[in-house]
Amino acid sequence: MKYKLLGPSGLKVSELCLGTMGFGTEWNWGVDQTASFKILDTFANAGGNFLDTANRYTEGSSERIIGEYIKNNRDHFVLATKYSLHDNLTNLNASGNNRKNLFRSVNESLKRLQTDYIDVLYLHIWDFLTPIDEVMRGFQDLVSQGKVNYVAISDTPAWIISSAQTMAQCLGWNKLVALQVEYSLIQRTPERELIPMAQHYGMSVTPWAPLAGGALTGKYLKGDKGRIPEQSKRLNERSVGITKVVMDVAQELGVEPSQVALKWTMQKPFTSIPIVGATKVSQLEENLKAITLQLSPEHIAKLNEASKIEMGFPHEFFEEAGVRQVTYGGFYDKIEKR
Length: 338
Hints:
Layout: E1 3-5, E2 12-14, E3 17-19, H1 33-45, E4 50-52, H2 61-70, E5 78-83, H3 99-113, E6 118-123, H4 132-144, E7 148-154, H5 158-171, E8 176-180, H6 194-201, E9 204-205, H7 237-253, H8 257-266, E10 275-277, H9 281-288, H10 297-307, H11 315-319, H12 321-328
Helix pairs in contact: 1-9, 2-3, 5-6, 7-8, 7-10
């Protein structure tokens, strides 16, 4: 395992992050504590130190299992959790991004995790109700109290995150160090605004569903029904075509399709630390082999071509020859690019 710095911080995290949404059986598809511990052992023995959970996962069992596992070696692990999603349906303010829920949720997470502090706290999903300054001030107060070391954000529009980063920079508050979004060969739309924004601010990208819910492993093409609805975009004609190319590249390299799909998210010109979930040790062991895989420029190009998306306005407008001519006066190819 190699290690990366998380965003513009000095925090060192493993190049793969272990997703733990399946720790706990409350959602009728996860695994119990014994099986979860075996997965955690496998990850830790491979050098993994970066764990991802959330207050909502398996009704809190994910956090409870992790807390039990790390309690005797807390400082070794970089623990990320999230707030925003409801954890009860009786309290109007037990959900959303507001300050009341932020503090309430963090305090409950700390109890389940059996720890005094959270290494990385994500806002889980934007609620379109709470002012961003309320969130960032709340984050800063939690950092000042020693309950949180670093703050991050997930599933939020780029313009809101940009506002948050600018605010933090101007006021001397802690900036967001990571951006968690759905990103895979099947889901590349974050390349339009979110990923360029993250690059601009030096944020690490932590892709969730880098295997598109298992679709990119090819198992659904082999008859495995799984948990993805048949009408899912992950199983439409475009996605099937992308998956077939992943399988072709994997066959050429003598590896599993999952390793190819994961490595594609890792071999980026920005810091990308995919979140790999597992409910079996064998699944995690297979995914860990992506660490030693290297995709050639030719394979990257083949995968990019199969999965390319329309970038839309203004990106495609900027690429037009006439626009470049009037913008750069004919010197575009001679100018150094950032």
